[in-house]
Design goal:
The protein is an all-alpha fold and 72 residues long. It has one domain (19-69). Helix content is 36%, strand content 0%. The chain has three helices and no strands. The longest helix has 11 residues, at 33-43.
């Protein structure tokens, strides 16, 4: 993996890749550091609303959970 930070002075950027990258698909992503920082701040909050029922069932559908909730 290659990771680098550049400040371009024009619209074109040239990347020198290792020989073992030649002939293979390579993903190139470009974004400004400011945009990346904002995105990280948004995703730092837990997204429990995205948890699937299947994942939650592993923790919730147990005898121990049933006992904990039986008096409520």
């Amino acid at each position: 993996m290659i990771r680098t930070i550049v400040t371009p002075d024009q619209q074109n950027i040239s990347i020198k890749l290792p020989q073992n990258f030649v002939g293979r698909q390579v993903e190139v992503i470009a974004f400004t550091i400011d945009d990346a920082t904002e995105e990280v701040l948004l995703t730092d909050t837990p997204m429990t609303h995205l948890a699937s029922e299947k994942v939650l069932a592993k923790e919730w559908l147990t005898t121990e959970e049933d006992k904990a909730w039986e008096d409520l």
